[in-house]
Amino acid sequence: MSEKPQTPAKAEAEVRRSAGQPSEAHAAGRGGGRAAEEERGGERGLEVRAAERAGRRRQARGEKRMEELTDAAAVEFAEVGYAKATTNAIAKRAGVSPGTLYQFFANKEALAAALSERYRVALQEAHGRAFDPSAAKLPLPEMVERMIRPMVEVNLANPGFKALFAGPDLPEHLTAPTRALQAAVVGRIAEVIAIRLPDLPAERLETTAAVATQIFAALLGTIVSVPAADRERWIDELKRALVGYLAPLESEN
């Protein structure tokens, strides 16, 4: 018997088989599989991005909570001292339960350590702006303004830190980095004055920087504590005192 002629579809399928190509049905199945895989991949990508966004939100909330707790600790330490402060009182001041506090800080020393680091970073940044060597070339009143303004601002922004780190009961290893920065102020002032007055003898330079530091420290407490409406008046008095002290040196040199 003679074979029936192949239909066009069968002929095409035969050609595909002989060429090692998949059939249309097989190819369609593979194409559908790829599409499904791409769809699943897209869904996984959306899930990953959603998880990342949720993680960032949790991190932001956690950072905000830590800041609130350290703010409360700064006030509590300043008011009652480090030794008498308790985590329960700090949590109450922050408006959270003690359990919430312990999710972020193991104890009050951990809170004090976080405060110490925060203050150290803020003070270091203020020093960088206050004691920029380029200020030495400014007119004297502008140089004094450039030097004292960042230092006033960092103390206004952190009113509890000065009382905390000046207190006797905070562990030494927590205060050491900040005290080192504070002790360096005289040297930083001396560096700026040395650029301005290069012929000033070393001994006189050291004394001048120390006296200028004491003038600043003597008025800083008042500047921080007076009502905001009176603050600029006291800052102006501080500037006048420093300019009045430093101006004769320029005449001599």
TrEMBL record:
Any one GO molecular function term: DNA-binding transcription factor activity
Bias kind Basic and acidic residues: ranges: 35-67
One Pfam family from the record: TetR_C_15
Coiled coil: none
InterPro entries in the record: DNA-bd_HTH_TetR-type_CS, Homeodomain-like_sf, HTH-type_TetR-like_transc_reg, HTH_TetR, TetR_C_15
Region annotated Disordered, chain positions: 1-67
HTH tetR-type domain ranges (all copies): 63-123
DNA-binding positions: 86-105
Keyword annotations of the record: DNA-binding
PANTHER family named in the record: HTH-TYPE TRANSCRIPTIONAL REGULATOR PKSA, HTH-TYPE TRANSCRIPTIONAL REGULATOR RUTR
Protein name as annotated: TetR family transcriptional regulator
Organism this protein belongs to: Kribbella caucasensis
